[in-house]
Amino acid sequence: MSWSAETARLYGLEPSHRPTLEEGISFYAPEARPLVLAAVEKSRVDGQAWELEVPLLRADGRRIWARVVASVELAEGKPVRLVGAFQDVTARVNEQRALQEAKTRFALATEGGGIAIWDWDISKDTFTVDDRLFELYGVTPETVDHSDLGFWVRRLHPDDRSGVQQALQACMDGIRAYNAEFRVVWDDGSIRYLKATGQVVLRDEAGRACA
């Protein structure tokens, strides 16, 4: 088995280091070793290439995430050589984990606070909402065309529609962030008081709001 100098560096070893296969696998975190061993063994048997993203413990004890890609060279149909590439993907994995954690915390916060989330794609005129907004409007997803913004506007109290539309327009024009309080009328005639906030997150080259 041989490594390039860059692979040795990523493992935290001297560039001249020449490991055995067993030593190389021993650097992977305990939970990852069976995956790597199984992939290597499968390559030995049937010549199948593989790719894994697994945690690895460098020689200095630092834990990183590695993307390992391997392909097999064949001679007369039999595997004779396993050639691989190794990449440190710690930054990307950490970013993905941080994003997922943020999404989870946000979901818990909105659920606990009775907050609904909405997204209006202005260029396509489509409206996306989460399940909580259906509850606030007293409807169920299965019975309404909730992608149509007009559906939600029609459920505003007639006296509040103009104010909401003006607030939305001011936000689209860049005058101020969207911030409105209004009443919604449920199908049973009861009235609920809601507060909505929002901001434009995308504009075209001409400065027109897109989303």
Descriptors for this entry?
single chain; 211 residues; alpha+beta; Beta-Lactamase; 2 domains; three-stranded antiparallel beta sheet; 7 helices; 7 strands
The number of helices is 7
The top-level CATH class of the largest domain is: Alpha Beta
Main sheet makeup: 3 strands, antiparallel
Tally of individual domains? 2
CATH topology of the largest domain: Beta-Lactamase
Strand and helix order: HHHEEEHEEHHHEE
- Tell me the Rg in angstroms: 28 Å
Mean pLDDT: 88
Amino- and carboxy-terminal Cα gap: 54 Å
Q: Strand arrangement, largest sheet? A: 1-2-3
CATH architecture of the largest domain: 2-Layer Sandwich
The CATH superfamily name of the largest domain is PAS domain
Proportion of residues in helical segments: 25-40%
Secondary structure class reads: alpha+beta
- Work out the number of β strands: 7
Shape field: elongated
Content of β-strand: 25-35%
What are the segments in which pLDDT stays under 50 over at least 5 consecutive residues? none
